[in-house]
């Protein structure tokens, strides 16, 4: 049997501590540590391109929640979406939910466009005012084909 050098034990402990710290940081930055905090809202979109479970829900550019479920409604052929909003964030009941893009090469996210109503969505409410994702490819095809509305 070989004896362990004190330096080897200390380096091993430091590597293990760094791995644990990285795991905690990764879970906090991805929102996994938030667990079930918050309340759920539902929305139905014509196109949910680029959005899936885990996608950010933002208000004024600030992450306020996460998409928690996406299913296809076989009757309406729309994407039914469930998302969680952090506790303490009140969303007016005349707000719109829009699929927005971070830019030409960026990903999509769900954006809450707040309304001016003094009343707020309750947990489990359905957001009626939605706007799906706009396909950049279809816009480019229309531009190249000359369908500019002239």
From TrEMBL:
InterPro entries: ABC_MlaD, Mce/MlaD, MlaD_Phospholipid_Transporter
GO biological process entries: phospholipid transport
UniProt superkingdom: Bacteria
Any Pfam family the entry gives: MlaD
Domain Mce/MlaD: 38-115
Coiled coil: none
Matches recorded under PANTHER family: INTERMEMBRANE PHOSPHOLIPID TRANSPORT SYSTEM BINDING PROTEIN MLAD, INTERMEMBRANE PHOSPHOLIPID TRANSPORT SYSTEM BINDING PROTEIN MLAD-RELATED
Name of the protein this chain belongs to: Putative phospholipid ABC transporter-binding protein MlaD
Organism taxonomic ancestry: Bacteria, Pseudomonadati, Pseudomonadota, Alphaproteobacteria, Rhodobacterales
């Amino acid at each position: 049997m070989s004896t362990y050098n004190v330096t080897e034990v200390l380096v091993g402990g430091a590597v293990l501590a760094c791995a644990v710290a990285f795991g905690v940081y990764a879970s906090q930055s991805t929102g996994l540590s938030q667990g079930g905090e918050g309340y759920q809202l539902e929305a139905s979109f014509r196109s949910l391109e680029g959005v899936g479970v885990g996608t950010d829900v933002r208000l004024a550019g600030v992450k306020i929640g996460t998409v928690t479920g996406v299913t296809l409604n076989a009757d309406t052929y729309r994407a039914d979406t469930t998302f969680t909003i952090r506790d303490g964030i009140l969303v007016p009941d005349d707000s719109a939910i829009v699929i927005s893009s971070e830019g030409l090469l960026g990903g999509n996210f769900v954006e809450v466009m707040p309304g001016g109503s003094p009343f707020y969505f309750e947990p489990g409410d359905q957001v009626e005012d939605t706007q799906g994702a706009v396909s950049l490819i279809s816009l480019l095809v229309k531009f190249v084909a000359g369908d500019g509305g002239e």
